[in-house]
Each structure stands twice: as structure tokens, then as C-alpha cells.
Amino acid sequence: MTGLLSSEWLKLRSARSTWCAIGVVVLLLVGTAALFEFVAVVYDHASEATRAHISIVPAVGLSGQFSEPLLGVVGALAVTGEYRTGAIRSSLVAVPDRLRYLAAKVVVIAVSALVAGETIVFAGYGISRVIVGDRPVILDDSDLADQLPLLLAHGALIAVFALIGLGLGTVLRSAAGTIVCIVAVWYIVPIMANMLPEPWHARIGSVTPDALPGQIAGVGNPHSVYGELLPPWAAALVLVGYAAVPLAAAALLLHRRDVR
Amino acid sequence: MTGSLTAEWLKLRSVRSTWYATGVAAAGILLAALWSTYVTRVYDAATAEHQAHFRAAAPEQGFLPLLEVCFAVVGVLAITSEHATGTIRASLAAVPRRGALLAAKAVVVGVVTLVAAEAIVFAMFAVGRALTGDRPMGFNESSVGETLPLLLASGALVAAVALVGLGLGAALRSTAGALIAVVALLFVVPTAANALPGDWSDRVRSVMLPDLGYQLAGSDYLGGLLLPPWAAAATLAGYVGVALGSAAAVLMRRDVR
């Protein structure tokens, strides 16, 4: 298994797309920093009366949320790249046990994406706090200890997106199809749920991916379109399900289907 | 030019992905029907007092992001699939003038996505109106004539998004990269713009790609209207122009791998 893991790790870090994604993550963090800097400047130049109306969502709602589809693409390309170039054939000659092959990919992607996700979330938090200082502009300004569960859960959500990408990529064997599905889960379904009248608005809004960290941490989803009907354990279960269902389908199809 | 156009039309209609993407976009009509049925049932079950304030979103606007993404995929794959499979070499051997190849692709992608998107938007509109009937829910209270500019502009926006996808695909030569770039333009940058303080969010939102449709129609959908229709049209043309311009620059200067 060590050999398998190191080969998957080598594939991941030698693909250009992985480095492009890291570059975009850095850009996202720089953009988030610029946004907070801009808000701070506006705040400093505003009169006392208008200052009360100046606010900005926490950084996790910007750089964190935007990183989800990006990491999803990294997970997808880890397998669709192999199908596109035909490398999947030599991979499966080297590792005839297909489930072990998939398991190694899952471990490498899960660990790297979790590290990346937590780094993005905590870097965003740190950057925004340093820039904003003691100006009361961030909508959720509780201290780090209170926010820790929320931030940790959000980092985990980013890793789950990478696993959704890996699972769907194995099922669909196409980068384009997988990316569209990721974007649908990440953005399109939530905004459509947002249009629905109650009670389905809150029902669907509670099980969309970005609604889960707030419910897992037990702080709900204030200042957002998401619902908050699930207790923490149920939200955690849904989060695991988002990764587990596509991966189970991937394992089944990879095991049964011929490689083209 | 007729030959290149015919060739591009043949390529576009003979790949599976075009039909998958169009099929998913057309499933929006089904979603519009489900949505309209659901709000109708909620309306009928509501009290008279609640009915007086009942407001629902127009299905053809609510499901427009689905169309934008699906037809962006059509635009992106029209060129990146050629790079992925290597048929770009054969295409450029057949049409050595690279600008002509890109122009033919742009015309075919633009016309096909415009026709398909308008058809789906109008079908969603018809389904929404037919199922909600004469129950006043806000979105279905305007006449067809009043809604027509918004419907036409929504389809035009989708076609423009497909052309932006084609341009980004040709410039980046990667399906994943181009799709992420389109998603950034459609969803990420506008959401980030919402976070700006005060008037700044409206100002920046007014030039965001998905917000140009209703401004193009001069509609007060979503309330905020900053750009007059001509300015929205110019901004939309600017998005398409920059994407296709950079595609032309890249295609003409770089070697094909």
C-alpha cells in the first residue's frame, strides 16, 4: 500500500493542474485580503452614521466557499486526467486490484485536500482579522475559540468536495461532466432552493453542502440563504454522505466496467 | 467560409457532449413545470391574507443559471475537445487560416446556443404561465409583451456566455481550466461583489456577466438597474470581445501541440 500511496502522491504533485489550482487559491486569498482592505478603507472614511451599515461576510464565506469547486476539480482531474491520456490502462496494469487503486487515490486526495482546506479557511480567517483590526465590520466577530468548530468543519467540507470530484470523475470519466455536477451541487441547487417557498426552502437549504458546517458547529447559518434544520450529528452524516455516495458508486463501476 | 461553417456545425452536432448539455438545459423546462406546480399548490393552500402578499420568482429567471452553465460547456468543449483529442491538428490542416477557424466556431456556437437557449427560455415561460394560471404571484402579472424583452435578453445572455466559454477554451486549451474560469465569471466574482460595502456592490454587480441580461432588457428584475440597455449591450459585447480576442491572439501566435 505504501508504494501505491507514494505513486498517487507523485501523480498528484506532478500534474500541472494541481499547481494551477494552488495558484488560484493564492489568488483567492489575495482577492479576499483586497476586499477586506477595501472595506476597512471605506469604513475609515465613512461618517459615524453610515459606519453602522458597513459590514462584510466572514472570510470563510468568500475564499473558503470559492475554494470548494476548485478542490472539486483537483479531485476530478486526479482520475479524469488518467482517462483522457490513457494512463488509466498502465495504472491498472500496475495495480490490478481496482479497489486498492481507488482507495489509494481516496487517501491521497482526502489528506491533501483536508490540509489544503484547513489552510485556506484558517489563512482567510487570519488575514481578514489582521486587516480589519478592531473595526466592527465582520458579520460574525466572535473570537477564534468560538469559531474553531465552524472553521474546522468548513475545511472538512472543502476536502469533501475534492472527494465528490474524485467519485463523480470515476463514474463519469469526463472532466467537463464532473465539473458541471460539482458546480450544480455547489451553487445551482442552493440558489434554486433559495427560490422555493417554505417549507422546502429550508428543507433543501439545510442539506446543501455549504449549509452543513454551520449546522455541524451548532451555530446555524445566520446572514446566509441556507437553512438550519439539522442537528450537528445529522449534518455531519450528510457531509460524510456527500463523499461516500459518489465514492461508493465509483468503486462499484470501476470494479465492474471495462476500462476504455 | 460556408465549408468551415458546415464543418463546425457537423462537429458540434455529432459529439455526444453537445446533446448531453442541451438535454440537461432542456430539463430546465421540467424543473420549471415542477416549480410552477409546487408554488401553485402552496398558493391554493394559503390563506386569503397570505395570498394577497404571495410572490414567487419567474421559473425562466430562476433556472437561467442552469442554462448558462450548460451552454458554457458547449462553447468550451467546441474547442478544448479538439485540443484534448488532437483533432485540432487536422482542423488547422483543413483550415490553415486560424482566424477563420475560430470565426466559424464562434458563428456556429453563437447561433446554435442562441436558438436553443431562446427556445428553452420561452418554453419555461410558457410552462410557468400555463401552470400558475391567473393566480397573481408577482412574476406572472405582466403581459407577454412586457416580458418579451427580458425573455429575449435572457437567451442572448446565455449565447454570450457560450461564446465567452469558447474564447476562454481556445485561450486556455483546457476543459477544466476554461470551465472554472466561466464559473468564476458567472458565480464567484458576482458573489464576491455582493460582499462590497454600500453602493459599491451595486456598481460592481451592474457589470457582472449574469447581471447584464435584465439590464439589457431594461427590466427592473432584482430591483437594481444601473446600466441603460445600450451600456449593458456594450458591456456584454466587451466580455465576448475580450474572450474571443484573446482566443484569436493565442490561436494565431502559438504552435498547436
Detailed description of the structure:
The complex is a heterodimer of chains A (260) and B (257). The longest helix of chain A has 35 residues. Chain A is built from 11 helices and no strands. Chain A has 260 residues and is mainly alpha-helical. Chain A starts with a helix and ends with a helix. The radius of gyration of chain A is 20 Å and the shape is globular. In chain A, α2 runs antiparallel to α4, α4 packs across α5 and α8 runs antiparallel to α9. Helix content of chain A is 77%, strand content 0%. Chain B is mostly helical and 257 residues long. Chain B is 79% helix and 0% strand. Chain B contains 12 helices and no strands. In chain B, α1 crosses α7, α2 packs antiparallel against α5 and α7 runs antiparallel to α12. Chain B starts with a helix and ends with a helix.
Layout of helices and strands:
The complex is a heterodimer of chains A (260) and B (257).
Chain A: H1 2-14, H2 16-45, H3 48-51, H4 63-85, H5 87-94, H6 98-132, H7 144-172, H8 175-195, H9 200-207, H10 212-216, H11 232-256
Helix pairs in contact in A: 1-6, 2-4, 2-6, 4-5, 4-6, 4-7, 4-8, 6-7, 6-11, 7-8, 7-11, 8-9
Chain B: H1 2-14, H2 16-45, H3 48-52, H4 59-62, H5 64-85, H6 87-94, H7 98-132, H8 144-172, H9 175-194, H10 199-205, H11 212-216, H12 229-253
Helix pairs in contact in B: 1-7, 2-5, 2-7, 5-6, 5-7, 5-8, 5-9, 7-8, 7-12, 8-9, 8-12
Reported for the largest beta sheet of chain A, the result is: none
- How confident overall, as mean pLDDT of chain A? 89
Order of helices and strands of chain A: HHHHHHHHHHH
The end-to-end distance of chain A, rounded to whole angstroms, is 25 Å
Poorly predicted parts of chain B: none
Number of strands of chain B: 0
Which chain pair shows the most residues in contact? A-B, 42 and 37 residues
Number of helices of chain B: 12
Rg for CA atoms of chain A: 20 Å
Q: Which range does the strand content of chain A fall in? A: under 5%
Protein structure class of chain A: mainly alpha
Unreliable spans of chain A: none
* Main sheet overview of chain B: none
